[in-house]
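Whiteboard transcription, Tuesday session. T.W. wrote the structure tokens on the left side:
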């Protein structure tokens, strides 16, 4: 800090009251890398633990349920009933008000 006449001259460090070492930049970079690594680890372990056979079994079970749940009514028309809960007509669900 210099005083020249009535003026006070400060250098950059004194004016900012601190040092400029780029610490925030390092914290942000390290946090970004750690976040990407954590999300990648979660994604990879989830994909690794999920077997393809369980997905195939689920799809087969869903197709078996949907095939057994639809039946024709007594007249043989396309009025379908889904396991007694919803009535279907022309491929659309009939809703009673």
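and on the right, the sequence the group agreed on:
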């Amino acid at each position: 800090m210099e005083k020249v006449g009535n003026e006070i001259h400060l250098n950059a460090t004194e004016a900012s009251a601190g040092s400029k070492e780029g610490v925030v930049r390092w914290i942000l970079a390290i946090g970004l890398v750690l976040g990407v690594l954590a999300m990648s680890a979660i994604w990879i372990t989830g994909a690794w633990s999920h077997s393809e056979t369980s997905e195939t079994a689920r799809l087969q079970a869903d197709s078996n349920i949907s095939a057994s749940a639809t039946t024709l009514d007594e007249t043989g028309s396309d009025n379908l009933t889904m396991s007694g809960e919803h009535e279907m007509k022309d491929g659309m669900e009939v809703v009673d008000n």
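Someone added at the bottom: Residues 78-83 have pLDDT under 50 and may be disordered.
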